[in-house]
Amino acid sequence: MTASPTFVDGCDFCKLAQGRDQSAEVLAEGDEWVAFFPLDPATPGHTLIIPRSHVVNLWEIDSKLGCVLMDAVVAVGRGIQTALRPDGMNLITSAGSVAEQTIFHLHLHLVPRWQDDCFGQIWPTESKGDRGDLEQVAIRIRAALATIG
Q: Of the residues 26, 49, 93, 132, which has the fewest C-beta atoms closer than 10 A?
């Protein structure tokens, strides 16, 4: 038995997931997700995939919803590849305002890419990390993973 989706009043993506907002071009949907074009796409075919239930970001979903969303990402991504034949594609999600999340309802961006598409690089050209700290960071992450199971 599937739990009823949770919605948050005032969340634009919850409204879209409920069918109360018809402003977006919906491409595909399932019982637990919706795929649609954003209002200001970065490239032709740029698509958002959201869960119907309100979840703030990727790190707050359960594994079942994670599997459902990833299946949707792969299916929609294959549709974009078949229809548009991009040179590449990014899958992007952000968690928190520092990571540039502006809508606090999980959304996964599928961004088709072409050579010289003016999207720009998504990675810094120089590493800002200190390789000397990697061992200590790895120890901390492994310990956290052991508690999460």
A: 132
CA angle, 85 as apex, 28 and 93 as ends, to 5°? 55
- Count how many residues are written for the chain: 149
Distance (Å) of CA 35 to CA 32, 45, 49, 50, 97? 11, 11, 4, 7, 23
**Spatial contact of 37 and 46, defined as CB atoms under 8 Å apart:** yes
pTM (predicted TM-score): 0.86
CA nearest neighbour of 5 among 36, 48, 34 = 34
pLDDT of 27-84, one tens digit each?
Answer: 999 999 999 999 999 999 999 999 999 999 999 999 999 999 999 999 999 999 999 9
Largest pairwise CA distance in the chain = 52
